[in-house]
Amino acid sequence: MDKRTSQIEDISLLIIMEKRKTFVNLLSNFRYKILNTKWTKLKLIIMEEDEFDWHVAEDPADWRHVRYDPEWYDYTASVAIDRPEEMNAYVLGTLKELCAGFERAMGDESVQFIVLTGTGEKAFCTGGSVTEYSQKYNRQPWKFREWGEYYGRVFDLILHCGKPVIARINGAVAGGGWEFVSCCDLALAVEYAKFISPGPRVGMTSIGGLSQWLPLHTSVKKSAEMVLLSSEVSAEEAVKQGFINDVASAEELDDMLREKYIDTMKNLSPSSLWYYKVQHNWWKDLVWRLTWEHGKAWFALNMGSVEPSEGLWAFKEKRDPEMEKIREMVSKGLDPRVPYGPFISKCSECGAEYIAEKSKYCPECGAELSKD
Length: 372
Fold this sequence. Notes:
Layout: E1 5-8, E2 12-17, E3 22-27, E4 32-35, E5 45-48, E6 66-73, E7 76-81, H1 92-107, E8 113-118, E9 123-125, H2 130-137, H3 144-160, E10 165-169, E11 172-174, H4 176-183, E12 186-190, E13 194-196, H5 210-217, H6 220-228, E14 233-234, H7 235-241, E15 246-248, H8 253-266, H9 270-280, H10 282-302, H11 306-316, H12 323-331, E16 343-345, E17 355-356
Parallel strand pairs: 2-5, 7-8, 8-10, 9-11, 10-12, 11-13, 12-15
Antiparallel strand pairs: 1-4, 2-3, 6-7, 13-14, 16-17
């Protein structure tokens, strides 16, 4: 064979770039040729990783943010968000690992029940990471389409895995964490758990599970009160309102989950429980994907605007957001999505385009803009 020419077929390389190391996985069904004299030139599929997004490892032991235990209890797997230092907030990579955990549990017939929880004692899940929202999607709102699809898939898997999913609420619940609870079939909380929808405080909104399902658990007016006032709800009140089933001390939570719930269901027909879940979730399915598709679009179109910019960065900077100030500006004609007008100006000096109409200077070269 000519040393200068070699042909390799039916191999694909997925290069995963990380800060400390590079992983190379060989995949099938991709054709390319290597033609060079000394160093081979490869056609590569490249996926760069960062702190928010990564390729999910094949072995769950190597997952970064999710702990999967297929033997948590009899016939029971645990899928746990493992970011206690971040109050179990999730990023895109976490969502991908959650999907992988539920897919494993769904496909394993030795698993009949799934427990969704968080690690540590402070938080079950406090929703999406404000750090990711502010640093990534506030700057590139369009990318939220991908984030939103993986988020939606977590809920699809909870709804359609064919097995009872129980939320083990071991602490604070906020935003998307509350939406996870609303999606699960059953929910038990530690007595000091608190529930809150913080979206309105940071320019976001609770349209990824709460707007769809909280009214099904409680009432239209009460669910509106909880979200529109961004009010805190105790575990005891959550039981009264109907969006969780039970409350226990930290010492008794797992015993209650195992003995009262799993041990009882172990002695019931698995097919019956599965099909009841299909019928029971009809109401959730009816509203879920139709509205979440709109939700993804709303976030992708809105996350770069004034309100999320103020709210998310205020949270990061540990200060109160100035939403009333924005309200006052809106009352005087400000549009939060285009505060300086449409992007129709052009710089005559450097040729920069799509500059906000009311801008005085070019953001590229600093030249004063003509208003002709």
